[in-house]
């Protein structure tokens, strides 16, 4: 059974979808802990599902590296096979990425390498494209630059707001994320050869 730690910053709707998938007895992965870089609303989902959680507030540390060291210490307690960044709005320090790579994946609300970064939905909308998408990637040292594990197109509709478009992308992100975690757990996806 693949053990998974999920890191979030926000509402955790994608986390919740993964928690729901993982509670089925035939799902080949288990979420063992949920962590956040702030007092994230999404931590409530972990509590509801009886999954341990922790918060390592970014602002409580002088440097990204010090924050990353504490995050690494918290993760080590659970020795997860896989770390899922599900809306974690912080770059991990390179040392932490190096420690777990390639066993760290990230979801992104755009069709990478289009529109990387924190505002993937806003940037797609501003550029006037008629379709964007969702991606699941391996985390590397760059910003949303790692190998792509799964992605799918999502249309941009006339009159879309950032919120509406994001809400249309998120269900696709969730489905891709669940499929990728399942694929890693069954061995259908080999992170070492994907990277
Ligand atoms: C997702 O679209 C994620 O890719 C982006 O933020 C969103 C997270 O939403 N970076 P939630 O916290 O899962 O509701």
Brief summary of the model shown:
This protein has 195 residues and is an alpha/beta fold. The protein has a single domain (2-194), classed as Rossmann fold (3-Layer(aba) Sandwich). 38% of the residues lie in helices and 22% in strands.
CATH T-level topology: Rossmann fold
* Secondary structure category: alpha/beta
Instruction: Report the major sheet.
Output: 7 strands, mixed
Report how far the terminal alpha carbons are from each other: 22 Å
> In angstroms, what is the radius of gyration?
16 Å
Ligands bound to this protein structure: 5-O-phosphono-beta-D-ribofuranosylamine
Q: Which strand-content bin applies to the residues?
A: 15-25%
Overall domain count:
1
List the helices and strands and how they pair.
Layout lengths: L1 E7 L4 H10 L6 E8 L6 H6 L4 E3 L8 H15 L3 E4 L8 H7 L3 E5 L11 H8 L3 E8 L9 E8 L6 H25 L4 H4 L1
Parallel strand pairs: 1-2, 1-4, 2-3, 4-5
Antiparallel strand pairs: 5-6, 6-7
Helix pairs in contact: 1-6
Which labels suit this protein?
binds 5-O-phosphono-beta-D-ribofuranosylamine, globular, 38% helix, single chain, seven-stranded mixed β-sheet, Rossmann fold, alpha/beta, 22% strand
Description:
- The chain is an alpha/beta fold and about 200 residues long.
- The chain has a single domain (about 1-195), classed as 3-Layer(aba) Sandwich (Rossmann fold).
- The protein is built from seven helices and seven strands; from the N terminus they run βαβαβαβαβαββαα.
- The protein has a seven-stranded mixed β-sheet with strand order 3-2-1-4-5-6-7, sandwiched between helices.
- It is globular and about 45 Å long.
- The model has no long low-confidence stretch (mean pLDDT about 95).
- 5-O-phosphono-beta-D-ribofuranosylamine binds near residues 12, 42, 86 and 87.
């Amino acid at each position: 059974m693949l053990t998974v730690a999920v890191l979030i910053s926000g509402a955790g709707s994608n986390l919740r979808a993964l928690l729901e998938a993982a509670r089925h007895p035939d799902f080949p992965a288990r979420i063992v802990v949920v962590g956040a870089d702030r007092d994230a609303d999404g931590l409530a989902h972990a509590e509801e599902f009886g999954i341990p959680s922790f918060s390592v507030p970014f602002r409580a540390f002088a440097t990204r590296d010090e924050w990353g060291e504490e995050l690494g210490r918290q993760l080590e307690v659970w020795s997860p096979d896989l770390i899922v960044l599900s809306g974690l709005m912080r770059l991990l320090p390179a040392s932490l990425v190096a420690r777990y790579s390639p066993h760290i994946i990230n979801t992104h609300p755009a069709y990478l390498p289009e529109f990387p970064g924190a505002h993937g939905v806003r940037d797609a909308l501003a550029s006037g494209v008629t379709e964007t998408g969702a991606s699941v990637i391996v985390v590397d040292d760059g910003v949303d630059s790692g190998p792509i594990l799964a992605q799918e197109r999502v249309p941009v509709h006339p009159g879309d707001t950032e919120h509406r478009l994001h809400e249309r992308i998120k269900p696709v992100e969730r489905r891709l994320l669940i499929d990728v975690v399942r694929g890693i757990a069954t061995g259908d996806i080999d992170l070492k050869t994907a990277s």
